[in-house]
Design a protein that fits this description.
The complex is a heterodimer of chains A (310) and B (315).
Chain A lengths: L2 H5 L31 H25 L4 H6 L12 H7 L4 H35 L5 H10 L9 H10 L6 H25 L3 H9 L4 H12 L1 H17 L2 H6 L8 H11 L4 H31 L6
Chain B lengths: L2 H46 L17 H8 L1 H32 L6 H9 L6 H12 L7 H8 L16 H26 L3 H9 L4 H12 L1 H16 L3 H6 L11 H11 L3 H25 L2 H4 L9
Classes of the chains: A mainly alpha (310), B mainly alpha (315).
Amino acid sequence: MDTTAEDRTVETPVGPAVGRRVRIGRPRVSWPTGIDIPYILRYIILLAVAAAILLPLVYGVLGGAKTNQQLVGDPVSLIPAPWTVSNYTDVLFGPSSPDFWQQLLNSLMVAAVAVSFTVIAASLAAFTFARMVFRGREAIYTFFVMGLLFPAAVAILPLFILLRQLDLNGSLLGVALPEAAFGLPLSIIILRPFFKSIPVELEDAAKIDGCSNFGFLWRVLLPLSRPALATVSVLAFVGSWNAFMLPLIILDNANTWTLPLGVMNFQGQYTSDKALVLAYTVTAAIPAVVFYFFAERQLVGGLTGGAVKG
Amino acid sequence: MSLSAVRVSARSGESQRAKWLTIGVFLLPALALFLTFVVYPVISAARYSLYKWDGLQPLTDFVGTKNYETAFASDLFIHSIQNNFLIIALSLTIQIPFSLMLATLLNRRFPGRAVFRLLFFLPYVLSEAITGIIFLLMLQPSGSDDYFTALMKNFGLGGFVQDWLGDTTFVMVTLFVVISWKYFGFHMIILLAGLQGIPREIEEAAFIDGAGRWQAFRHVTLPLLGPTLRVSVFLSMIGAVQLFDMVWVMTRGGPLDATDTMAVSLFYAGYIDHHVGYGSAMAVILFLFGLVLSLAYLRFVLRRDVEGAVTAFNA
């Protein structure tokens, strides 16, 4: 996202040489902003923060490769001696594996439904907000935008009652539908300007060639909007994947638990087997981490897109 | 009226109908989802809050504002509100300045920059459940000292050791640190994007005018970063107001209700204890706090700031 920004920075700095130390050898890199902190100090701070981020992750990964005796006997050292793989194999193939794979599958199903509902409904709505002129358009749009200014926890008790009335209590669909609904505002907000930016000439050409509104949306607008659709899907996916309070209230049967619920309950169930709990938690984190390395660009783009326009 | 004119108006009436039909059909899925699962529940919360109700019997026992009076008379709930505001205060004074500092450090080109950025933002995609459980296992003694205590003793810092999760006054600090671990990278990413949007010429102009590094940052960069900073502040507040997941995973509101937040209280009241009316009153109070923050925000900032910036915090 910042390659172009970086390219500019190697230019020779402008500004007074008076009172400024000129470093020789390395081209002085002058970024737009920032306090001039000596090189070494910057690395020390960043490495310290990096260590603080990594420590719990490393503790989890390596702790899962220990035995409980090792964890109790030597609480400080991180490196297992000797290494144990039985906790991880237990989670993936052993006695704990049916739970793990079931929860992974449940999480995937909820996310798949929530993401597709959000993306489909938001695309159709954003299309009308972006490309059609009608009375009340801005009012309805604002109505959706307001949805993201309010805490979701407010709706949780009535949602529980409502889903019970709809007989969706305990079902994965009962989790996916509200998640899709809560994902709408952000999705519409991201898609609308993107849809708007597609030239009207393309629309005219498509209409002359006999496209209906839906045909134009389906054959022209959506294919051209792949980056925005990817961003919206990624954000909706992360939201659904990490959702906690709604599944906690709706999914009362252990067979329907998603990974976050599974991890929490696994810890409650095996409090005495710390190493196994660590292995389970770390394994449950892998899909999100893998996803992150593939989708980081969309994620960052979506989160920062509008934040900096002001 | 000539025949052709009639035909034209009939056709345009027809196309008007077709247009409204398209709009209706296109808006229907989004409106149906949004009204059913967002708007209706929020309105229902307001309605339920006026009743004494267990969630099962018919909704008949109207009690007016009694649930609200009970909530504000309850030391537990007041304490919950205080905890929410404690997290807001700590976020604004520690988490966001910290994120800003890191964003400034990363707003330079140097070897390893991309790796740091990738790593700092990583915790954002880990669920609260996974984050909470890992920290729980690091902070909870099990047979021997917990990991942090052992680590600190190892470095001769045993005097600073706390009962991280057991001490009723310190436990909120522990939670704040864990929450910050997960979210500072998110704020850093937003602020970094903001910093990169500020043209370098502006700061250079300040240098030419004789400003030092700090002066240029304080009087030029920071004001220009204002809109982005406000988004960050707003998201932080709205997240802290509805804090639930991390608390539930790590402490369930304990020890001795020390970590109750508004959302935890309403969950206990409405879901665990089946006092749906009372829990809904707490939900409405939470809603009002969120609303006041939102309105204060909208008052100062244009809507374009929010667009694209508000995130999974709300989901």
